[in-house]
Amino acid sequence: MPASLRFDGLHRRFGRLAVLRGISGGAAAGEALLVTGRNGSGKSTLLRCLAGLLAADAGSVDYRENGPPLGAAERRRRVGLVAPDLAFYGELTVAENLVFFARLRGLGRERGEALLARLGLPGDRLAGALSSGMRQRLRWAWALLHRPALLLLDEPFQNLDAPGLAATGRLLAEHLAPEDGGGEPGLAVIATPSPLEIAGVAARLDLGG
Amino acid sequence: MWRRASTWAAEAAAVFAKEWRCEFRTRYALNTLALFALTTLVTISVSLGPLGISLAHGTGVLPVLLWLILLFAAAAGLPRAFVHEEETQSATALRLAARPSTVFAGKLAYGATLTAALEALITPLYLAVMSSAVARPGLLIAALAAGGYGLAAGSTLVAAIIAQARGKATLFAVLSFPVLLPLVLMAVALSREAFAGGGAAGTTAEMTLMQLFLYDASVTVAGLMLFPVVWNP
Predict the structure, then answer these.
(1) How far is A103 from chain B (nearest CA, A)?
(2) How far is CA B145 from the centre of its chain?
(3) Site from B3, B96, B99 to mutate, A interface, most A CB atoms within 10 angstroms
(4) What are the pLDDT digits (tens) for A70-88?
(5) Nearest CA in chain A to B21
(6) What is the pTM of this model?
(7) What ipTM did this prediction achieve?
(8) Residues A11 and A18: beta-carbon distance below 8 Å
């Protein structure tokens, strides 16, 4: 059974501010859910709840990969996240960062090297010395390192130049519809402030704001 | 079972190696610990010196001063264990990639080796400048090993608790006081036995050493159990 995501009635408050009020949605394998909304509408909060980084006050998240629903702790380690506040070790080079996270996941360094080449990232540069566009490319490499079935993309194309947009667009397309022998199709939740034309978007969710 | 344990150990080892790699690049903790310890050591040696303390008082006072140097030097460097990651926002990536227990174990191993390095640097210097002889060197090494590990374990646990809070420095001082005080008292008592050479096998020194090991084990287990709660939402 391929991966699937369904979330129902998600509520999340920060003090008196209700950010998520009964949000529901989902995506199946090979599909992307596009979440739009103004700044402060709760897009990032929703993605953090789906990633298991933030506990929802109410509601449920049902994410499964060939089996029963995964709990928050399992979800955290399985998903791939691209988010503006995601940072890496500035004292380490780009390649050393990826090797470290690959070791944590029990992987070799080949996948990281392949992603560096595809994203045009300089492996020997310190992560702390990257431009904002290069930092965004590194977030993509990090998110795809362990070939997650679920990609959570929070403003994934910000600061990217034309080659960066093309490279990440190709990686997203391959994630949703792998070529022959490339494994099962994945799914994605993409949050952006304004609607984007992205192949594979099967559903849209407007959080307004 | 074995495969799970080896995967767990490999994850913890990756965190440990990353901590040291980052430390060698910035030398933040190494410099802080070494400079703080050396400054305190010089102050004590100039103020008291070998002639400032009579032999009768020496075995009582010298272990206290040694542990004060180690405690405050460790307190200056070890709280950075998790604070740095929260401040640079790299904690999210680590949360999403590693199990909490392996993060704690890796950070604890880093803190313990850092403390051991500090002890290896400071203790011989301290004994030399204070012209002090140690009656039972083996017991002093055991006290330094068990006490140093406890210092790292207690500091790592408190550092994890305070990492996401405001007023980290104050919180660290307040929370580490009850956690580290019993450890330092035991380590001082044991070191005093080592300096003075009193007590036969199976008496006070061995009992205190056993208590130190129990403290170390308790704080380690408490850390492994508490850390997932404070690390994750």
Answers:
(1) 6
(2) 9
(3) B96
(4) 999 999 999 999 999 999 9
(5) A92
(6) 0.90
(7) 0.92
(8) yes
